[in-house]
Specification:
Elements lengths: L7 E6 L3 H13 L4 E5 L5 H14 L3 E4 L20 H22 L4 E3 L9 H15 L4 E4 L4 E2 L2 E2 L5 H8 L5 E5 H11 L3 H7 L5 E6 L23 H10 L5 E3 L5 H18 L4
Helix pairs in contact: 1-2, 2-3
Pfam families: AP_endonuc_2
Organism: Methanoculleus palmolei
InterPro entries: Xyl_isomerase-like_sf (IPR036237), Xyl_isomerase-like_TIM-brl (IPR013022)
């Protein structure tokens, strides 16, 4: 039986023309089928310049909304942020506006969203905070991503399928399944990765995120799929990918992206064949 064709893509920051040019070549060669554009808040002239460049590349695009690393933390805007509250609010307003504009210009049907992080002990309040964010900014293209339970000791909101469904509250109907995030959560909470993965069958998953993480780790590091210390259950993941080949799978790497993507696209193809019978 022939292997299914996958909709494979790679991530690029909006303001990274070098990686964009490289990924354009991969797209022209047929090695990838889409890009995920990480929207980052930029001064207006720079935003327009970079957005025009991405649009000119003509590659089918997914947009990833800015998250806490970019100063946008939907569930608790002021957590771990010393800026005045009014400045934070105005910054988020502009960042979300740019994100929606980028999705409009690129014809993206998906905007990946992180619920955000919060201070220990404040989870109930931040659930309300995320609901308030959706009251102000909800968009039918929002696709809610599962996050690792913690990073650098700071808790994140929306770690399991059940938690995502509760946060979405029928206002978000699409979900992004990030495999290493789920594995980190399972390790931190001492849950079964296999069982937690099965629970995503109950959600409308319209995007997969894929990289690797260390064996037994609770920390998401965006490691290569063939990293010698990799601990992700690739057999189970490729079993899911094989059952949902039409759902886009985006590789996510942040450092030395062009060098990493050169290898990882080939590694993905090899693993696809290796786990074909699993």
């Amino acid at each position: 039986m022939p292997l299914p064709d996958y909709n494979l893509g790679c991530t690029v920051r909006l303001d990274d023309p070098e990686t964009l040019a490289f990924l354009s070549k991969l797209y022209e060669e047929g090695a990838i089928q889409h890009i995920q554009v990480q929207a980052v808040p930029l001064p207006r002239p720079l935003f327009q310049e970079h957005l025009d460049r991405v649009a000119a590349a003509g590659i089918p695009s997914i947009v990833h909304a800015p998250h806490h690393s970019h100063g946008v933390n939907p569930c608790a805007p002021a957590a771990y942020d010393d800026r005045p509250r009014g400045e934070i609010t105005a910054y988020i307003e502009e960042a979300v506006s740019q994100t929606f504009e980028a999705a409009d210009v690129l014809g993206a049907e998906t905007i990946v969203l992180h619920a955000g992080r919060y201070k220990p002990g404040g989870r109930a309040e931040t659930v309300e905070g995320f609901a308030g964010f959706l009251d102000r900014y909800n968009d039918p293209r929002f696709t809610l991503e599962n996050l690792p339970a913690v990073h650098a000791g700071r808790p994140f909101l929306g770690n399991t399928a059940e938690e995502l469904a509760a946060l979405a509250d029928d206002r978000i109907t699409r979900f992004c399944l990030d495999f290493p995030h789920l594995a980190c959560t399972a390790n931190y909470r001492r849950l079964s990765f296999t069982e937690e993965l099965k629970r995503f069958e109950d959600l409308s998953v319209t995007l997969h995120h894929l990289s690797n993480m260390r064996r037994g780790s609770i920390t998401d590091e965006h490691l290569e799929l063939d990293h010698p210390d990799g601990g992700l259950d690739l057999a189970r993941i490729f079993s899911r990918l094989r059952r949902y080949p039409a759902v886009p799978t985006t590789l996510e790497y942040k450092r030395n992206a062009t060098a990493i993507y050169t290898r990882q696209v080939r590694v993905f193809t090899r693993l696809r064949e290796e786990y074909a019978g699993e």
